[in-house]
Structure formats: C-alpha cells, structure tokens
Amino acid sequence: MSIDRRSFLLEASKLIVLTAPAAAAWDYVIAGAAEQAPDYDASAHWWAMIIDVEKCIGCGRCVQACKAENGVPLEPQYFRTWVERYEIDPDDPEHPHVESPNGGYDGFPGPTKPGTKTFFVPKLCNQCADSPCVQVCPVGATFRTPDGVVLVDKEYCLGCRYCVQACPYGCRYIDPRTHTADKCTLCYHRITKGLQTACVEVCPTGARYLGDLKDPRDPIHEFLRTHKVQVLKPQMATHSKTFYNGLDGAVR
Amino acid sequence: MARFRSYEHLLRLAAVFAAGVALFLGARWLLVPSDYGRLGAYRASALAQNQLRPIAYAGQVACVECHTDVADLRRSNAHARISCESCHGPLARHAADPAEAVERPDPRATCAVCHLPSPAKPPWFKTVAFTEHADPGPCTTCHQAHAPKL
Questions:
Q1: Is residue A33 predicted with pLDDT exceeding 80?
Q2: ipTM
C-alpha cells in the first residue's frame, strides 16, 4: 500500500478540522435536558464565614444546633462543627494544649491550668475555594458549588476516604449509616432559602457570621476591611473562606 | 505507482474502529449521569439534593412573627440579640404548626450553659459561680431570662 504525501495531508487535515466541532457538540449532548431552575441563583452568591474568636464563650450551642439541624450522629467522633479550647503555657507557646471534649457539645466543664493563656476556637469546614478534598475525589462526588460551598454528592460517593485524609482541617468524617463522606454543607438547605446556618442562628454572642461576598451591601465587606482577620493554615493555599478575627498564632 | 487494490482490510479496520467508538459511546451513555458536567465535574442535581433536607431551626424571623410580646420585652437588654432557638432549641415544627407543644428550657441548666465561669471566656462576658451565688433553685426566681437585670 502506498499513499502519496499530498492525499495523506488532505485527509489528515480534514479529520483535524472535523474533530473540533464534534468535541464542542459533545458537551451539549452529554448535558442532557435542562433541569428545572430553582428560585435560588447559585451564581449570584459567594458564601463566606467569619468566626470572631474573641466573642466565643465555648457554650457549644453551635455544635448542638449543627447536629440537630443536619442529623449528625451524636457519637463524639462525628462533627460538622466543633469547638476547641486552647491552653497555652507562656513558657512553651509552641506546644499548646488543645482539648475538645465531645466537640464542645456539652460545653467545657473543668478548670484550666492556672497561668495559661486560654480561649475557645470554633472549627468547621473552611469552604475552601481551592479545596484539596475536591481535588482528590476520584469520582466527582465532592465539589465546589457555583456559590462557593463544598458539598458531597452522597449518591455518588464511594466512601473511599481520600477526602477525609486530604482535608487539612480535619473537617470530614465517614457517616456510619451511609458509609459515605460527610461534612459541613454550610447548611445549604437553609442558606438557599434565605435563612442563616444553624450555628450562626443559635450563637448567643454573635461569634459567627455568615456573609455573601458577592453582595456589595453585605456587612462582611466592612468587617473584613476594618478587622485583622486570618484564615487557618494559609500556607496550604486552600483559599479558605472562613475568616478568623482575633486568632492566636498558636491555633492550627 | 502501482494501483491500490486491497481495500478489504481497511474496511475491516474501520469496522473494528467504529465498533469500539460505539461501545465507548454506549458505555458512556449508560454510566455517566445526564447532568454530570453541566456545572463542573460533578452531578448538577446534587445541589438540589443537598437543598432538600428538612429545616429544624425555624429562624428568628419566624419566631417574632407571632411572639411579638417577647420580642418587645427583649428589644433592648443584654439578651436582645440572642436568637430564641438558642435557648428554646429547634422549633421549626412548632413554627409550622403552633399547636405543636414546646418544652420549656431548664431554668437553671440553660443559664449555666453560657454563664458558668471559665478563664477561657472573654473578660467582658458576665459569668457567675452558680454554687456560691445562690441555692440550687431555678435562676428565673430572681432573674428574667427575656429581660435580664444583673
């Protein structure tokens, strides 16, 4: 068999020219029929959370509310949000003593060591814009929504636990009932209906604030401009959207 | 240049190739959900599924819609900015059906959740040593939860 250079180039270029539109059309083919558009426009929001450490009193209301609202198992190893109590010895600030009995669900009974710097730090999913958990999911069961919330597709999750290991903040667990990954959804069923998250709703001192960075009238912009805020583990480049005000350097 | 005559094996190759493509497309059609990839590398309907959860906490707006007397009482005091459900618990079912009975919060334990002393609490927050402060009765004997005076 022989084919001259002229005809080979002709056929090859035809093939290349035809591939591009075919690939573009394919995107529409796999998209299928359009779903019903809900009233909530996800692309119009970009949710963020502010945690004011100096206002937290460690009452654990947020932990209780989160578990009640989201049906999180009550065993002390499953939390979507939890509160930690730090105790920092001034002579050894590199090794703070951190405890979180039952995630702070029942408050923090018992005294702290005298002479230590001590405070509470609420933790939850940081809703990272560049989330490691999303990157490692092999099946696309965890993803960042257009409004900036990291969610889990429970029907698609294999329960492989890569995301649990990948989260630098320890915010994920495997639900013992479904054996799928679970985490803070930023109360996606509430915020899409105009409500606050459960933890923000019940916080008695206003230590938590849910803000919409895409809403120019949201007070979150004023807060971020006038306060010295920090995200957890900024060196991980996760672009966390949970901003801590008054965060001590010892907090990890 | 000799005339090219052996078309048959080219056709066979094309048939195998076409069958492979058809198999791939068929498998893809069967395995990939129809809404996968619409918003990103995930099922777009997972957003709606996450929105479906029933609500447990009705929210402050729903509470003060009926309980205007308590809202007025709480207007300007130390507890003014605390949400009702912070002490009363999740009450979405009560908000949907006011006939649904509501349990009153424990008049001592509920206060203790916040007001027990702890060095970890910020210095501005008012705490009280419960055991030394008063007999083990309800706090509401002397204090009004909705209008606390210290």
A1: no
A2: 0.86
